[in-house]
Design goal:
Blueprint: H1 2-6, E1 22-24, E2 29-31, E3 50-52, E4 60-61, E5 74-76, E6 84-85, E7 98-100, E8 122-124, E9 146-148, E10 170-172, E11 180-181, E12 194-196, E13 204-205, E14 218-220, H2 231-235, E15 242-245, E16 251-252, H3 255-265, E17 270-272, E18 280-282, H4 297-347
Parallel strand pairs: 2-3, 3-5, 4-6, 5-7, 7-8, 8-9, 9-10, 10-12, 11-13, 12-14, 14-15, 15-17, 16-18
Antiparallel strand pairs: 1-2
Helix pairs in contact: 3-4
């Protein structure tokens, strides 16, 4: 009875299995989902291909927790309360291809987080409390294709953070607290196809921030704090076909903004898919108005204002010239009269 309480038989054989888990021998799957576990259970079969530990009560991943699991390809540890990854806690998983650590309480990654994870292709770290990422924490993920860092508390990113991720094709940084996109942050991401940057606090995008992204098909910037954008920033996107999401920003609608969007939409490979949803925040008289509904009115209004000012200035100049000429004629007339009077007095 002691043996039965500690181990359970697999559904298709007699291989030992951790207590409270289900082991499927034919497919090498171990299901420990939502079992109230506080640690990685011992006794996981060495041939396990997929291990599901999601929905438990683990608070940390200890050193060498996965020792001997050479065949593990998929590790799911989401929806726990993990706040700490001990050094080298994952380093034995050299053939791991997918790692899900989403919906935990991680505030940081250890510098050696990616050590020996050379086969990893997909990494989910979304919905944690990550704030600052060590620039070396991702350096061994040379084969990573998909990285999800969404809905953390990331304020800024070191320019070296993604330097090793040259095969990345999906990156989500949505729902963080980024305020500036700097040049060279994505300098090695020529294969990146999807970039989610929505719902941050981005106010500044440096001119060359998107230049390396030759394969980009979707760039999401909705829900940030953009007031204006530069046409040159998006013109640097030398791609085949890129869809842009730019709605839900506090746009200041003026002639310059309308011109920028007009130019972007005339670039064959760029498509602002939510242009009809772009709403003005300023100036106050245009707050709540759709930019698309104004057509070229903003530039026309600006042109009229400039024209009125120009005409006013021109009239003022003409008035001043006329007055000056009149004064000159009066002066000449007075001089003639004075001369005549003097001559008349002398003759008398």
């Amino acid at each position: 009875s002691v043996i039965v309480s500690f181990f359970c038989y697999s559904t298709m054989g007699f291989k030992l299995c951790p207590s409270h888990c289900l082991c499927y021998e034919l497919s090498d799957l171990v299901d420990c989902k939502s079992r109230g576990l506080t640690i990685v259970p011992p006794g996981i079969p060495h041939g396990t291909w997929l291990l599901d530990l999601s929905g438990n009560k683990m608070t940390q991943v200890r050193n060498r927790s996965f020792r001997g699991l050479w065949s593990l390809k998929i590790l799911l540890i989401s929806n726990n309360s993990i706040h700490s990854l001990q050094p080298q806690s994952l380093s034995s998983l050299e053939f791991l291809e997918r790692l899900d650590l989403s919906y935990n309480r991680l505030k940081r990654l250890p510098p050696d987080f990616s050590h020996k994870l050379l086969s990893l292709k997909e990494l989910r770290l979304d919905h944690n409390f990550l704030r600052l990422l060590d620039p070396t924490s991702l350096q061994d993920l040379e084969n990573l294709r998909k990285l999800d860092l969404s809905y953390n508390q990331i304020i800024s990113l070191d320019v070296q953070l993604f330097h090793s991720l040259s095969h990345l094709n999906y990156l989500s940084l949505e729902g963080n607290k980024l305020n500036t996109l700097i040049d060279d942050l994505l300098s090695r991401q020529q294969n990146l196809q999807i970039l989610h940057l929505g719902h941050n606090n981005i106010t500044v995008i440096e001119n060359q921030a998107f230049t390396p992204l030759r394969s980009l098909t979707l760039l999401s910037l909705h829900g940030n704090q953009l007031v204006h954008i530069r046409f040159k920033t998006f013109l640097e996107l030398q791609t085949t076909n890129t869809h842009l999401q730019l709605a839900s920003n506090p746009w200041t609608c003026d002639c310059e903004l309308q011109r920028v969007f007009g130019k972007i939409q005339h670039v064959k490979h760029l498509h602002v898919v939510d242009y009809k949803d772009i709403i003005c925040r300023a100036p106050p008289q245009l707050a709540g108005s759709l930019l698309a509904s104004m057509d070229s009115q903003l530039c026309m209004a600006e042109t009229v204002s400039v024209l009125v000012i120009t005409i006013t200035v021109l009239l003022a100049v003409i008035g001043a010239l006329v007055k000056a000429e009149r004064n000159q004629k009066n002066k000449q007339r007075n001089e003639i009269c004075l001369t005549q009077c003097l001559l008349y007095g002398m003759s008398g």
